[in-house]
Amino acid sequence: MYKAVTRGISVTVTPRYMPEESSSEQGRYFFAYTVEIINMGLERVQLRARHWQITDEHGQVQEVRGAGVVGEEPVLGPGESFSYTSGCPLPTPGGTMQGTYLMETATGETFDAEIPALSLDIPRSNRILH
Asked: May I ask the CATH architecture of the domain 2-117?
């Protein structure tokens, strides 16, 4: 579990390897991750956009940008939370992800809430030794 807090917005990410969605022969390693966003602040905010940087074991970076998350732009009042699960394919057995959510306050002010850097790793029991 990885956690970051920006201006009262807590972002916790829990990644897991999905062997049933992966194929080492095809160079496809799939990771799911669950994100929980909690508004610990005093003002209502809306998640408007996401920006992820995904880096594989060879240092290749893929950037993902888009509106909202999983087709939603959730509004979080003080004390409210929103969770979702998504996935990330990699061409290598591991890598890292990090990024930001663009948040907007009720007054129209925007700021970036940090998504903590997290490690995507296959458990040792799933790695094939040569």
From this structure: Sandwich (2.60)
For every one of its 130 residues, what pLDDT tens digit does the chain have, with 9 covering 90 and above? 999 999 999 999 999 999 999 998 999 999 999 999 999 999 999 999 999 999 999 999 999 999 999 999 999 999 999 999 999 999 999 999 999 999 999 999 999 999 999 999 998 765 554 4
- Residues 18, 77 contacting (CB under 8 angstroms): no
**Residue 88 token pair:** 């990330």
pTM above the 0.85 mark? Answer: yes
75 HSE (CA, 13 A, CB side): 6
Side-chain half-sphere CA neighbours of 57 within 13 A: 12
Confirm if 36 and 25 have CB atoms less than 8 A apart: no
- Asked whether the beta carbons of 75 and 111 are under 8 A apart, the reply is no
Strands in 2-6's sheet, in edge-to-edge order, are 2-6, 9-17, 29-39, 81-90
